[in-house]
Amino acid sequence: MSPGRVLISPSILAADLGRLAEEVVAVEAGGAEWIHVDVMDGHFVPNLTFGADVIRVVEAATDLFIDVHLMVEAPEKYFDEYVDAGADGLTLHLEAAPHLHRQLQAIRELGAAAGVAINPGTSLDALDAVWEDVDLVLIMSVNPGWAGQAFIPATLDRLAECRDRMDAIPAERRPLLQVDGGITAENAADVVAAGADVLVSGSGVYRYDDPADGVRALRSAATRIIAS
User: Whole-model pTM?
Assistant: First the structure.
């Protein structure tokens, strides 16, 4: 999963679901590498969103990596169904996973990339026990549950700290560092400078009349930092 550049993962949470396949095709045309699917159960977070049927629609529309973010209680209940539906990676929340090692191993045994997400109020120290078990670490830059929230500025320091910890891991075992929540072309440069490998953006992409332009705007901001 090692990127040659920053990866863009548009979140369909902000897409027009009545035109979902078209919305996926549009961001692919703009150069997105991944598609982000936010699964919420109305318990771990207050909102209720997608299930396996939506993943199947995305899988039928694209060959891009399908990046499924499980904001749910008891996430292990969904692993088999969602991988069967087309998920290439499953990211569960540390806060919802009392048996984290076992759950991450179960994802990998299904052939999917295993990710762990951490909320803004949770200490990064909690990640220290699982570096060898994850392919991706997701730093939440909002409190999860709703699209369109404002980016929490303290996230930049958390990203930089997490990047420092990850850089101590040998490159061949180093997970990707993803950020999700309030990411736009206006702050993308800052989060890339802080160390992010993967940018998740919903409203920041789908607010454009053509979502491909939203992807290009994020790419332009990220590229300026990488080139500087």
Answer: 0.94
